[in-house]
């Protein structure tokens, strides 16, 4: 005998259907993409269907978000977002922190930064925030000295001491792993290192300090901060399941912020 649906059941089903939402989240290759796929698994039973959109560089995800092609992105740290908003006029807003991925120094030719010879060529990202971040790491390693007051975005023009006469080649961040053969060393973001088959823990010859200002964030368009899909997105990302995935997969090379 066919069972008739009660009014309460129909209303509950209708409410459940109304609550289900589809969103598109932009990510960069490597750990950001891999983690967001895990977030999508956690979010699905909560009624949030996440389509993970992978971009190959750092410029397009914010443009895509500003243009309405995606609802959120998860690939950048606060200083990079601030610089993008200043330079490009994007009306975007961070809504949650995610992970920290210490930048590493890599080389096919030497085993440590102390082995860099006079006039060695070091690759750094060509965007202001990650290029500045790379220079700050090289300063922490004692290889260069930067002028005071440059904050988080120094450039090669701010180098005041360079005892090894290092030469700097500024390249797109995604190209740096593939350019190692032509460089003596390169400062590489963790996501591009992992995407290129490098293990930050075993293949880097030096790593950025863990206590740095470059914690990554989930970003939405201004005005969407209170959208009803934002809370479940954050809850899914900050879940125990996602934290366990990160801890197990990355073994300390990717650090959670919650």
Task: Output the keywords.
alpha/beta; D-Maltodextrin-Binding Protein, domain 2; 5-stranded mixed beta sheet; palmitate; Lipoprotein_NlpA; membrane; 2 domains
What do you see in this structure?
The chain has 258 residues and is an alpha/beta fold. The chain folds into 2 domains: 21-101 and 214-256, D-Maltodextrin-Binding Protein, domain 2; 104-207, Periplasmic binding protein-like II (D-Maltodextrin-Binding Protein, domain 2), CATH 3.40.190.10. 33% of the residues lie in helices and 23% in strands. The chain is built from 9 helices and 14 strands. The chain has helices spanning 7-19, 31-43, 60-66, 78-88, 128-140, 190-195, 200-203, 230-237, 240-250, and strands at 21-27, 48-54, 72-77, 92-97, 99-100, 104-106, 121-125, 145-146, 159-161, 167-171, 185-188, 206-207, 216-221, 255-256. A 5-stranded mixed beta sheet has the order 2-1-3-13-4, with helices on both faces. It has a 5-stranded mixed beta sheet with strand order 10-7-11-6-12. Helix 2 links the parallel strand 1 and strand 2. Helix 2 (31-43) crosses helix 8 and helix 2 (31-43) runs antiparallel to helix 9. The protein is globular, with a radius of gyration of 21 Å. The chain starts with 6 loop residues before the first helix and ends with a strand.
